[in-house]
Amino acid sequence: MPKFKAWIAAARLRTLPLSVSGIIVGSAIAKKNSLFQPEIFWLAILTTIGFQVLSNFANDYGDGIKGVDDHREGEKRMVASGLIPAKQMKYGIMMTAFVTLSIAVNLIYAAFGWEDFFNSLLFLVLGIISIVAALKYTIGKNAYGYSGLGDVFVFLFFGLLSVLGSNYLFTHEPKWDLLLPASSIGLFSMAVLNLNNMRDIENDKKNKKNTLVVSLGSLKAKIYHYILISLGMVLTLLYSGINYHSINQFTYCIAFIPLWLNLVTVYKNKEPKLLDNELKKVALSTFLFAILFGFFH
Q1: CB-CB neighbours of 244 under 10 Å
Q2: What pLDDT does residue 74 have?
Q3: What is the model's pTM?
């Protein structure tokens, strides 16, 4: 595989639509309130993509040097396969972190300027925390992805921070009712991670990667998955029921159809490796949900 294609593969482009879903939802609410600014939106999108690519590189590196990816199901990993040497991936991680933080600084300036020091400092700290969280998922002795905490961080960063944070960049004030759709995005994102861990359960057991699925076991992990998807749907419907009254504003329910189909597939599944295609289904359904939610609100 040519080196450029190897880096593209390591970036895992199929994960990017999921990563920007929260930004789309948070920005859509700002646009509804006539506070939307295209510059802030696109800088937020680029920052989020940077964090996601950084996380993917770090995950490839961390699992690769620990041998976790040597016999994994699903997509080939670049460090484990030798297509990108660990040392080069480490440089790639550092460069991606630098570029992403630079974009984040520009985003912060576009949102708050030099005048609002408190908010600028707050979001700079959040950006640094996001970088550390991306790195610590699988890198290091105390990587939280190996102790079942990945789900918590996905909920916080893909859901709450993504939706509430992006909306705050426009409005400069918290909108606590956004906790409902933010939680939906977070729960759907957790479902994608749960599918990933269900697929890799046997390999993770062998390598002592104690994901939540490894701790729960396959049966309870399925029940957990049903709860994540179902609760995610309910919370957004509750938000819309409180705030809107037009049937058009529930058009996003179209995106729930493949999510329900995913629940059926998970229920029937007996071979974890066959769940690989379901990751894309849930991730793209979440992205479709975000697009429809944003367009009709």
Answers
A1: 14
A2: 58
A3: 0.92
